[in-house]
Amino acid sequence: MTALSRLEGLPDWPARMTAPVAAAYMGISQNTFLIRFGAVGVKEGGNTLWARAQLDRIVADQFGLALPGVAVGSGDAYADWKAQQGN
Fold first, then answer.
1. How far apart (Å, rounded) are the C-alpha atoms in residues 19 and 73?
2. Within a domain: residue 73?
3. What is the per-residue pLDDT across 23-48, written as a single tens digit (0 to 9) for each?
4. If pLDDT is split at 50, 70 and 90, which confidence band does 21 have?
5. H-helix or E-strand containing 42?
6. What is the mean pLDDT of the chain?
7. Overall domain count for the chain
8. SS3 category, 45
9. Which CATH number belongs to the domain containing residue 63 in this structure?
10. Residue 79: inside a domain, yes or no?
11. Which of 23, 36, 51, 74 could form a disulfide with 30 if both were Cys (CB 3.0 to 4.6 A apart)?
12. Is residue 55 part of a domain?
């Protein structure tokens, strides 16, 4: 059973996603996802995971949208990554 086929039984996208699921959530190929966002994943054991909230923030930033209840400040991994990207 693939990661994407397991999604069929869930009521919504999971809060934490592996690369294949996160890439599907973002609507891009896994290779493109890893090139663009691989550095912001969090290692847990042998897995690298991305948070749905983190991906939502990336999309909101890309389209200039505000996300209520999502603060960006010092100590924020996404803000640190974005600064390193020069965005």
1. 26
2. no
3. 999 999 999 999 999 999 999 999 99
4. very high
5. strand 42-44
6. 84
7. 1
8. coil
9. 1.10.1660
10. no
11. 23
12. yes
**Angle in degrees, CA 22, 20, 78, rounded to 5:** 35
In a domain, 52, yes or no: yes
Tally Cβ neighbours within 10 Å of residue 70.
14
Instruction: Give the list of residues 6+ apart from residue 85 with CB closer than 8 angstroms, or none.
Output: none
Domain boundaries, position 21: 13-68
Q: Where are the alpha helices (DSSP H) in the chain?
A: 3-6, 19-26, 30-37, 52-63, 77-85
3-state class (DSSP) for residue 51: strand
Question: Where does the pLDDT of residue 6 fall: very low under 50, low under 70, confident under 90, or very high at 90 and above?
Answer: confident
C-alpha–C-alpha distance, residues 44 and 22, integer Å: 16
Residue-level length of the chain: 87
- Give the pLDDT band (50/70/90) at residue 82: confident
The residue type found at 58 is: I
